[in-house]
Amino acid sequence: MKFNQDFIDKLKTAKSVVFFTGAGISAESGVPTFRGKEGLWKKFKPQELANFDAFIRNPDLVWEWYQYRRKIVEEANPNPGHLAIVEMGKYFEDVSVITQNVDDLHNRAGSKNVYELHGNIERNYCIDCEAIYNTNELEVTGKAPRCKKCGGLIRPDIVWFGEPIPQSIFSAAELKAKNSDICFVVGTTAIIYPAASIPRLAKEDGAYLVEINIEPTEISHWVDYSLIGKSGEILPEILAEIRSFH
Ligand code: OAD
Ligand code: ZN
Q: Which of 213, 217, 219, 223 to mutate to test the pocket of ligand 1 (most atoms within 8 A of CB)?
């Protein structure tokens, strides 16, 4: 792919780079996105599963839905897009990943400085005493597991609809976005707030905004550069470009 000169110049001078990622970056690992043709929310309604009231009403059903998603994620591996981001860490002073994904694939790829805005599907906690449990510490049955300390229900450590993003994580992510020289927006519809404010904040503070998506999105008209294609292909091409001048 031939990149435009503005972008290449930015790649040459940038010190701080942020990747704001969504479900699309994991699509090539075989993890379904939420809103596409095959998207998870086409088959399941978020209001019935991804919120606290639904969990209290039917913890076993919600638990079963997360077990289904955990299985997909555990069988998946980071793809060339995740790995290219890790490699780019060698060429810039500061590379951060601000992700809406809960699939752990950035961590498993080896990225440092990962800000998980919506939690992590492998982590869980007791709704009564807040004791933390990794999924592999829990016995998998058809029922929602109970806390070994207090008997409370254990829920996935995921930010559900109607719940806030933990303040410390969001503030740190905002600061990274504001201080970035380039902000890549990768594989996200960028419509779920407050997470979706990250690209706007970055641009307002002077970052060069680059979108990578298989199709135009609601933010395509105001980004600096829109690259249409698969992130597992375009990110390695950007890495190759960076390497060509180092
Ligand atoms: P979406 O499912 O809304 O969007 C996925 C985006 O990825 C779409 O814009 C696709 O066009 C794009 N895409 C698909 N395959 C791609 C590929 N190979 N390369 C590049 N782009 C690709 O997912 P998110 O934007 O992540 O919240 O959704 C945001 C939040 O909504 C999620 O974090 C989740 C959901 O409700 C929680 O779980 C709290
Ligand atoms: Zn407990």
A: 213
Residue 98 near residue 18 (C-beta atoms within 8 A):
yes
- Express each pLDDT in 85-143 by its tens digit: 999 999 999 999 999 999 999 999 999 999 999 999 999 999 999 999 999 999 878 89
- pTM, entire model: 0.96
Query: Looking at the structure, do residues 106 and 41 belong to the same domain, yes or no?
Result: no
Whether residues 206 and 240 share a domain: the answer is: yes
Structure confidence at residue 46 as a pLDDT band (50, 70, 90): confident
Residues 129 and 18 placed together within one structural domain of the fold: no
Amino acid at site 161:
F
Is residue 83 domain-shared with residue 101, that is, in the same domain?
A: yes
Catalytic residue list contains 118: yes
Give residue 194's pLDDT band: very low, low, confident or very high (50, 70, 90). very high
Give dist(CA 94, CA 77) in Å, integer: 25
Q: Residue 207: give the domain boundaries.
A: 1-31+76-118+165-246
Work out how many domains the chain is built from and give that number. 2
Residue 24 CB less than 6 A away from ligand 1? yes
Residues within 5 Å of ion ligand 2, judged at the Cβ atom: 126, 128-129, 131, 147, 149-150, 152
146 three-state secondary structure: strand
CA distance 208 to 48: 38
Ligand 2 center to residue 134 CA distance, Å?
14
